[in-house]
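hey all, quick one before standup. I had two proteins in the batch that finished overnight and I want to keep them in one place so we stop losing track of which output belongs to which input. First protein below, input sequence then structure tokens straight from the run.
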Amino acid sequence: MNVPENLKYTKDHEWIRVEGGFGWVGITEFAQGELGDIVFVELPAVGTKVEQGKTFGTIEAVKAVSELYAPITGEIVEVNKAVQDQPESVNKDPYNNGWMVKIAIANPAEVSALLDAPAYKSLIGK
């Protein structure tokens, strides 16, 4: 199970990679494995405000539909159109090509409340 050390994680299985005042967000390898074959991803429009812990979209797999939760508060500044066109990219490469949204971070202090890689591994029993 791949849990990159350079990312932060939520208990809802989202990850965020912070660079400067921005965060790239996706779902973890564990989450995509639990969902199975992803067939549809619904993401918000650029300019949408998101709030930490609140829903920002949905992801649909053959087995289930799941909500996506924002790891931090901010504004969507970019949406990965490739994920919407080819949702299976989340299964193939959840941490790189499978990212979903880029958020301008409103409150950098929220990042420190997220799980680091060892804490996330403990959460998922790895």
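OK second protein, same deal, sequence then tokens:
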Amino acid sequence: MTIQEQYIARLRELVEAKFGHPITTIEDCDALSEAVGEATNIKLDSRAFVPIFVKTPHPIAPRPVTLSTLARYLGFNSWSEFCSTGSVLPGEDVDKIPVVRRWGVIILTVLALAVVVGAIIFLLAVSGKDTSHAEDRIGAVAESVETRWVARTMEECIALRASRCDSTFVNTLDAFVEEYDEAMQRDIPRDLRAKASEDGVVVEDAVVEAYADSIASRCKSMYEVLYLEK
């Protein structure tokens, strides 16, 4: 189980504890959607919670905005804050990638990302509910921005790995992390607003912040692996 999966598992446990009973069906997700909306003023379609709580034959990754909204439901300001509290500590089963497999993992990660994005776009296309149309358009904007940032982060990680044997690698990595974190905090919300404006989509500030935080968290999980490889 990866670090991200551990955080999501912990999130699921805490949400079910606050909700009052296990969430395992579509009907449970409908009720959770109402509870989350009342607590956060962010209304998500109940289908957004299915990847986290309901077992399906073909699981897909939860949307970034879903993770951030559930973190807010638990009283955190963002998904990033939830992950930084230390309530979920990486165990011995956290993936550590052998050197000989790293390039293969990178390629597989790109392919997996393409498959996930394609699956999400397909699900949005086949959905005909008018009530979810605005959310679908906002999701498409976020997916476009996330794809660009994930690709950019992967390029940065590849460049950093090239200097892994250097005696100053840790210092170089620390400097990169500090600068890149600032760049993501500054630029991801700007990119989301610019893409939304380009596509004619109106996005509230709270939704922009939720998506931006989740995109940043995904990118952080990519380069934090470099500390395990040093």
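Flagging for whoever picks this up: Residues 90-103, 126-132 have pLDDT under 50 and may be disordered. Residues 9 and 34 are 21 Å apart (CA to CA).
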